[in-house]
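S2.1 Query sequence (6,7-dimethyl-8-ribityllumazine synthase)
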Amino acid sequence: MQEIKQTEGQLQGIRGQFVLVVGRFNSFVVESLVSGAVDTLRRHGVAAEQIEIVRAPGAWELPLAVKKVLQTRQPAAVIVLGAVIRGGTPHFEYVAGECNSALGRLMMEFETPIANGVLTVNSIEQAIERSGTKMGNKGVEAADAALEMVNLLNTLGN
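Output structure tokens follow.
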């Protein structure tokens, strides 16, 4: 039987700028995501001068900040970090849903990887679990996805 060709991205030897667009709201959780993402990038050979952090007020504002970054910086990838925690009103659904939809549209429009590390959780406990305790660190996962996608797109383009 003939072997099937497979193409996938790697996590090493990545060039280009990485911009973290970070929502300040719920910073007690988000700063752990930022630390995890930056540490992951650095451990995979991304130099400090290849990393920029852009801060926006919250998750609602993240897509506009990402769009401006894509227009002005031309990064290899954008890593978006934030936290939307469900409250007692439907506000959660609107903010989380619109943020996620807009990020997906921007990724397709600009053909640039956008790693979505915006937590959308039901409780503060879930947010804490996903920012570095028993459920891992979603900032680390977003950085890994960004690195792999940059390499994959470079591989597919050659």
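The first strand starts at residue 18 and ends at 23. The two ends are 28 Å apart (CA to CA).
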